[in-house]
Amino acid sequence: MANNFTHIGLLQHGAxxxxxxxxxxxxxxxxxxxxxxxxQAFGRASPxxxxxxxxxxxxxxxxxxxxxxxxxxxxxxxxxxxxxxxxEWEGRNPQDxxxxxxxxxxxxxxxxxxxxxxxGESFGDFRARVLDAWTxxxxxxxxxxxxxxxxxxxxxxxxAHVLQMSDERLLALNIEYGALTRLRVLRDRSGExxxxxxxxxx
Length: 202
Description:
By secondary structure, the chain is an alpha/beta fold. The protein has a single domain, classed as Phosphoglycerate mutase-like (Rossmann fold), CATH 3.40.50.1240. The protein contains six helices and six strands, in the order E-H-E-H-E-H-H-H-E-H-E-E. The protein has a six-stranded mixed beta sheet. Helix 3 crosses helix 4 and helix 5 crosses helix 6. The radius of gyration is 17 Å and the shape is globular. It starts with 5 loop residues before the first strand and ends with a strand.
């Protein structure tokens, strides 16, 4: 039974040069400090992983490519693991958005599932693609250990799904840059059994 479990590590990308702004469709490189932190944490030869899956965004894919090459692991880029598209909020910090869309932003902080950024992706569409990727990983990597390099809201949606949390609690989950969340999932004909093993670990 143990070999049928898929172990999935969700790695939040490091801090980015664009700063504390909404980055959904925005490609932005990691800061030098973030690169150093991630290389120190993951640079050692490690038996922990069998494959790497990444969002195609630069802030995720650059490190994923480096790590996969260093560890000689297969790498898959999955469009479904992109961050939500923030529309008119893209590339702007929350303080700036508060001056132009105060009501929408306040409602979004309370429950991102109920409000979409102007011109952005609906939360329903976002969640559907993320959970589609999650379901497929549980099947495609049965018995394996997969490192997934992705974004904060993607990680929140997956954790909320596993723990059956309400949408109102999504942003209560703190996702630090460079933090790793470990989950275990078993998927068979009867359904899915998943558990959170560790959250925010190095």
